[in-house]
Amino acid sequence: MLKVLNSKSVQINDVIFTVDEENNLKVTGYKSMSFDVDGDLDFNAKKITMIADDVFHIESKKHLVEKAPRIDLNPPEEMIDSPNFKCESPKTEHEFVIMKDGQLYSYNNFDDIPKEFDNVIKFEPVIPAGPHTEEQHEEIAQWGSKLKQLMKREKM
Questions:
Q1: Quick one: pLDDT at residue 63?
Q2: What's the predicted TM-score (pTM) here?
Q3: Residue 109: which domain range?
Q4: 71 assigned to some structural domain
Q5: Which of 4, 83, 91, 92 has the fewest CB atoms in 10 Å of its CB?
């Protein structure tokens, strides 16, 4: 139910939307907020502050966060001291997991993967942060063909 509270605020059920004199929007009264979009969701701002009481998670299904041109995470000291604050370092070793005879086997060196196995479970080479040298570009370029090689070796 929509209810107009005043010239700057409206209420929909228990959620109140308020616009102040400087055109800032404040949303209060919600328990969670979800964005489920088929296209892009853009946030253009000078500063974005996100605070979570429990776990804060950023994930990209297509890109590694370390590939982003710039991400500044400067949490306040009290947040860093919180027992819920987790910060994982970028991976430094490749991780390849295969299944053979119903068992999972993990490898850090591509050349250690056996010639015969049932399925590729995980193929996660480490891509170094840019800018890249010519040698790094050549190494990065090989991973697509190496994955195809593994897929051809699967017994299925």
A1: 44
A2: 0.44
A3: 95-153
A4: no
A5: 83
